From TrEMBL, chains A, B:
InterPro entries: Metal_resp_DNA-bind_regulator, Tscrpt_reg_PadR_N, WH-like_DNA-bd_sf, WH_DNA-bd_sf. Pfam families: PadR (PF03551). It comes from Saccharibacillus alkalitolerans. Residues 15-87 form the Transcription regulator PadR N-terminal domain. This is PadR family transcriptional regulator.
Length: 108, 108
DNA sequence: CTGTCGTACTTCATCTGTCGTAGTATTGTG
DNA sequence: CACAATACTACGACAGATGAAGTACGACAG
């Protein structure tokens, strides 16, 4: 279990990662984050959906509504070129962040 | 230069680290963070001082006013046993956070 | 055929932490 | 004496996370 403040700066990055290999939608992304992190991080629903809104507003993802076969309404998201660029920036930033924080961590 | 959102969850931890080897005060801590991070992270004054208030409220640091020789008023802070325990928790959490975030980072 | 669970969201109000702006006061330096 | 550096404090704004609650559909058990 990771406290949210810690990972706060990477929620958007995590979501973008989930869209790297194709479109997906909220519930699926949520489950996948949980699975990938081996239950160590569970993004709250409201956090997830407000992140979608922010990411779309910034042009990092685009959405399309699929009011599918059986009536299940889902909003699918895709990463945009800008989103990909942003994701890569964040990956680079993450390396630096690790180096910096490590200086303030005393290994047990 | 690291964006604040990224390191947000570790400001308190960074400050506590600075107090591990003895008391210190705001301005000095600020300078030391900057130096230790090799200018990669500069904590804003307001962020620093509001962190002091929070840490003290939580019992992680204690303060003492030294209205020193020449009139320089400084507030010195010391880490408490609770603060030390909290710091160690955060160090452990940091290891897990790194593992988790790394799963969502695609190395260049 | 009814209740409950899982899916798939949305809305709203609140809280925490950061940050910009600004101001105060003292000490050291050219 | 002006100005930078030191050492804070106060205040208001804002972004992002969160809790609580609600909507709506399908599947499945009893």
């Amino acid at each position: 279990m990771i406290s949210s403040d810690v990972i706060r700066g990477y929620n958007d990055t995590i979501i973008l990662y989930m869209l790297l290999d194709g479109e997906s939608y909220g519930y699926e992304i949520s489950k996948n984050i949980r699975r990938l992190s081996e239950d160590k991080y569970v993004m709250k629903e409201t956090t997830l959906y407000s992140a979608f809104a922010r990411l779309e507003k910034n042009g990092y993802i685009s959405s399309l509504h699929k009011d599918g076969e059986t009536g299940k309404r889902r909003t699918y998201y895709r990463i945009t070129p800008d989103g990909l660029a942003y994701y890569r920036d964040k990956c680079r930033e993450w390396q630096i962040t690790q180096e910096v924080v490590d200086k303030f961590i005393k290994e047990a």
